[in-house]
Amino acid sequence: MKYAYFPGCSANSTGISYSMSVDYMCRKLGVGLEEIPDWNCCGTSAARITDRDMALALPARSLALSEKMDPELSVFAPCAGCYSSLKTSATYAKESDENRQRLEDIIEMPYEAQADVVNILDILADPEVLEAIKTNMVKRFEGLKVASYYGCALVRPEGMCQQDSTENPMVMDNVVELIGGTPVEWSYKTECCGASNHITYPEASKPMVERIFRNAAANGADIIVTACPLCWMNLDMREAEVNKLYNREYDIPVYYVSELIGAALGGSFKELGCDKHFRPAERLFDHLQDVPATDAAAQKEVVA
Amino acid sequence: MSKIGVFVCHCGSNIAGTVDVEKVTEAASHLPNVVYATHNKYTCSDPGQQSIRQAIIDNDLDRIVIASCSPRMHELTFRKMLTETKVNPYMLEIANIREQCSWVHKNKDEGTKKAMDLVEMAVAKVDHDTGLFSTQIPVNKRALVIGGGIAGMQAALDIADAGLPVTIVERKPSLGGKMVMLDKTFPTMDCSACICTPKMSEVGAHPNITLKTYSEVEAVTGYVGNFEVTIREKAKYIDYDVCTGCGLCETKCPTKVDNAYDQNMSKRKAIYKMFAQAVPSKPVIDDQACRMLTSGKCGVCSKLCPTGAINYKDTDKVTTETYGAVVLATGYELIDWAKLYGEYGGGAYPDVVTGLHFERLVNASGPTEGHILRPSDGKEPKSMVIIKCVGSRDPNKGKAYCSRACCMYGAKHAHQYLDKVPDGKCYVFYMDVRTPGKGYDEFYMRTKNDGAQYLRGRVSKIYREDDHYVCLGEDTTSGHKVSVNADMVVLETAMVAAPGARETAGMFGVACDKDDWITEAHPKLRPVETHTAGVYLCGVAQGPKDIPDTVAQAGAAAAKVIGLLNKPSLESNPQICHVNTNLCNGDQLCKDICPYGAISMVTKEFRENSRKVTRTVAQVNEGLCQGCGACSVACRVGAMDLLGFTNEGIMKEVDALCQW
Fold first, then answer.
1. CA–CA gap between residue B236 and residue B253 (Å, rounded)
2. How far apart are CA A31 and CA A36, in angstroms?
3. What is the dihedral of CA B534, B539, B544, B545, to 10 degrees?
4. Is the ipTM reported for this complex over the cut 0.85?
5. Cβ contacts of residue B33 below 8 Å, gap of 6+?
6. Per-residue pLDDT reduced to its tens digit, B347-377
7. Which of B23, B44, B381, B618 keeps 20 to 30 A from B408, CA to CA?
8. In angstroms, what separates the C-alpha of B338 from chain A's closest C-alpha?
């Protein structure tokens, strides 16, 4: 299993825990990641509100480069924002030959638009990957209640993203259950975290963060897991702020789903980048127990 | 040599304004075999018709061309006129120089030229026409009504009252349909059951009505006046001739299952009557639930039955009978919203219910005896949210159409809730409020005055928090996002066609639209007829409507049926397809394309080159053929010909047009 890898700009900055843990997870699971040479900014929301052509062409360039590297590989963009931009551009190009040629003209590169764009949910929905997690798991969680938070960009719009449901997706919940966590049923799985308002209109975004913590807490979650660097940052960084502003005592660390899987696969606090969180993130490891040797052996046998 | 008369019409200034009718007449008089040409101000008028009749006598005409309006307008008029002359009514061609010429052109020279061409084509075709003669089709004086809801019952009663025998086929064990499940009817707040159940018993007791409940139509052959319909009556396991409907059997039945009649909010026994006032007032055994039928152990009802009516060995009964006319009244179901609206909980929340649930909850004979109690914990909801247009007017998730009755029954639900829970708060989310109808808008305004809070906007999400439901939405009149806490949510969901409606309609060669509503013959002028002669429709089967509209349409359909069945016989349409068996190669293309199932393949013996040969050829059922001509287009060897529109006749028209 191999993917062309589009790290995105957050991979080496605010989302470094994500890229470290994705990297660790993929190595352990035998999922090959080949970075697209000379990839560029996906354009994200900034391009989208400036110029439609730019919003479509920026990702198209990276996709064309990926094609040049290896036309067979699907492009994996772990960041939800990158995924959304890349997928939108690829979908546009696949819609008609006219669209595709238009993008070719802008980026001045050949672009066949054959490759698919996937996010981490697509990878985690693959039965082969789930099987690999089962086989390579050395630790499992005990008594950890996990609220899976999908945000907006991974599952929407419905026609473009091929997830199980736009309202109640279950991919992360299923993985969490596989590695011993207890998925929490809650109501804000796919509600917006308000990240794009944080600079321009913080009064609008703070209640959006607060309601996510409120609903997760009301449903008894110990931690929240995400698959988006922007959601993660927004929640992890703002918990204290929200607590102060609304006089609450939320105590819910936020993790990437890849950190959970990485921990179950044997990754350490530092290897997974958990030391780079804004708030202390040790809780995950308090709930981690070794998989009994017989269990692991038995599981391996079953797989064999 | 034929003798053709050409009559060019001015239609006042409708035609003469853009077409020089005198020039057209002059040109027509020089066409081959035209012995008489004239023009008239209004050809369709009585004097106009009289002048044609006179011209036929004076000039010994044997065929005529009338250059006037569309044949859809007056072809029948002129055919009728020809029946009083020696000219065969099918030796007539209409050149449409109004709709297809004068009305669409401004330039008189061009219009005149085109009118001449059209007349020349008609003359070329009529020269080739042959006389056609219709035959008489016998009419079986019995009607079949499919569906035993208010639409079907009303149609059946009206037909039966006219003295004609009617059979009703109803899929459920009892008549009543959806109406009998409702609590009150808007805007008068009549008790729905109180006006519906008397109709049910009237139908059940009517000497001219035969009831076939728990039955479905399985196959149909035949044509107008003579439909052979096969009906499967599912095994009821009760001998209805012996059963007195005492209900003793139900009391001791040990098996309880969800009661679909109460929207699964109550239980019923495995041997059950759908509801107390069911017609027929006799039970059936649910063969999926009955212990005796599933495991062979029990038999309690059989021991209790004082008349020995229970027969566990009962089987389905299949009968085939002939009917002259059919009414399709297959009704509707509510859309399966749970699959489509994950944002409303996708069916996971017990207190997010449909309007039909609410009808049962508020109904005195329902599971809560008319107290509005929420299904999850039986508590009275102190706040209720009503969401309209769930699945309606939502082409992305549900249906594009408006379900028409929901604005009114939504207002009714709000009114009923506020009436029964005086300290309760009711919020209604709406897109538009559409309340045309006698007394309807007054009812809506009254509901608002009752205190129902109408919010213009859609609900984006419902989720549970503690013991209430949070409804996130928008109030577009103020531009604010709103969040309403509700103890219960009622979704006024879209009506969709009953499952199997398309299949049932298809058996009669009747088409449905993309949403499976049965298509009427003309949306304005033939609203209760279908494209298949002798098959009529009424009620929601045609499209969403409320009870008064349904009843009115049922009466109209019944009038059509009575009109048809009162004829001693029907005149057949002679413009049907004809097989030239010499050319037919038996490739079945005509059979496959025929939308009316009028073509069958038969193996016949022929004499060819002084030898006997056996070949398979097409055969047209003259009763079923509607003369659409699809087969004549599909036939590769030209064996299929539509009489009155023969391949050769059309070629003559083309030839006439293409002469330069």
1. 16
2. 16
3. 130
4. no
5. B1, B2, B3, B4, B123, B127
6. 999 999 999 999 999 999 999 999 999 999 9
7. B381
8. 12
